[in-house]
Design goal:
globular; alpha/beta; 136 residues; single chain
């Protein structure tokens, strides 16, 4: 009986270690749900010099939007592509746009016609955030 209890304890400890590792990798253990996610320096800003009416792209991978911030001209269409193995969404915090849940390799597009700053997030994983800056 002691051997069965010891085996159960070992499996439980391994499962707990695996869960904590996954949470750490995804950032779930790093901060509380009420804290905003801070973009890292590597994906913070990419300015595109594309003319109005052209296209820009944001990748979704490893529970992050890359780049985390993008600057485009008014009239530019931005495409988000999900490269993760699980669904994600792209939702404007102001309600300007809202995607359905996107599976792997699905895309969502939105054309930004008005200058301004547009914050967005994944409603399935609210710590995933980003911003589109639209210049005239």
């Amino acid at each position: 009986m002691r051997r069965i209890q010891a085996i159960g304890f070992e499996w439980g400890a391994m499962a707990l270690t695996a869960i904590v590792s996954v949470m750490t990798l995804t950032g779930a253990a790093a901060s509380s749900p009420s804290e905003p996610q801070v973009a890292t320096q590597t994906n913070q800003a990419v300015a595109t010099d594309a003319p109005a009416g052209s296209a820009a792209e944001v990748k979704i991978d490893n529970f992050a939007f890359t780049p985390g911030m993008i600057t485009v001209k008014a009239g530019t269409q931005v495409t988000w592509i999900n490269h993760d193995d699980i669904p994600h969404t792209v939702d404007s915090t102001e309600g300007k746009f809202k995607s359905s849940a996107m599976d792997t390799d699905d895309k969502f597009q939105f054309r930004f016609t008005e200058p301004g700053e547009y914050q967005f997030y994944c409603r399935l994983h609210p710590k995933m955030t980003g911003k589109v800056v639209v210049q005239p």
